[in-house]
Amino acid sequence: MTLFSLLFFLIASFSVSSVSCNPQENNFLVKNRIVGGDEVDISEVPWQVALQNNGNHFCGGSIISEKYVVTAAHCTDEILLENIATQVGSSFKQSSGQIVGVKNIYQHPNYISSTNDFDISILELESPLEFGSEISPVSLPSSDKVWEVGTSAFVTGWGLTSEDGSTSSQLRGATVHIISKSDCIVAYDQNLITSRMLCADNPKRGKDACQGDSGGPMVVGDVLAGIVSWGEGCARPDAPGVYTDVAVLRDFIKENTGI
Is 229 a catalytic residue? Predict the structure, then answer.
């Protein structure tokens, strides 16, 4: 797998690999696009953000307030602050919507690029967002929230629509289901799956996130349960998608944003 570059393309049978803007040492982390999903209008997921590096889409993110966006640390690792911008309020990447620059990047200090542990970053925007039907924050879980196995979640992004395919200009999404930590360990390795990770898949329907979906949201209702992080391939059998568990790292968000 290789690190994601952006939130999944909307997962429904989730097996994700992390895709960052920089290749990682661990070749077991390779995907981040929505495979097997459907087109989604931004008004359905108004917290969805597209991240651009020098004007080119590379990752996803989630609006959590008028000033802050949450994404994956592998999306911001080693990136130049002056090169990154956010696109909000649009169903199409690099088209329409509003472009807002980034003032500061707060990457988790314990982030490990080789394993994608602590895979979370917070972007402080240069100017506050004006909320409306197409731009609105996602809710955050409490720090003690534990998602039950089988919980249905929704992942969105502009990533690859198949493991060897192309990205989509239209936002896409897919339904996945949270699986147990033990099942995720069986799929990968006990040393790769940590307490900061949450796994989900939809093996019967071939839906998952993929390259280009990294950093994007996996929500349960309107609550941000996970951040697209990594996985082996895209929508492969017995290879669930791995997400950053937002609840576990909730204190990091509060310490840096006050939210």
Answer: no
Q: Is the pTM of this model over 0.90?
A: no
- CA–CA gap between residue 17 and residue 77 (Å, rounded): 16
Report residue 187: phi and psi, to 5°. Answer: -70, -35
The pLDDT score that the predictor gives to residue 67 is 98
Nearest to 100 by CA among 122, 68, 73: 68
For residue 207, what are its two tokens? 């839906």
Backbone dihedral angles phi then psi of residue 254, each to the nearest 5 degrees: -65, -40
Rounded distance between C-alpha atoms, residue 218 and residue 209, angstroms: 10
Active site residue 245: no
Q: Is 119 a catalytic residue?
A: yes
Among the listed residues 5, 13, 17, 74, the single catalytic one is 74
Residue 202 one-letter amino acid? N
**Measured between alpha carbons, how far is 54 from 51 in angstroms, rounded to an integer?**
10
pLDDT tens-place string over residues 77-129: 999 999 999 999 999 876 778 999 999 999 999 999 999 999 999 999 999 99
Using CA atoms of 98, 103, 108, 109 in order, give the dihedral in degrees to the nearest 10.
160
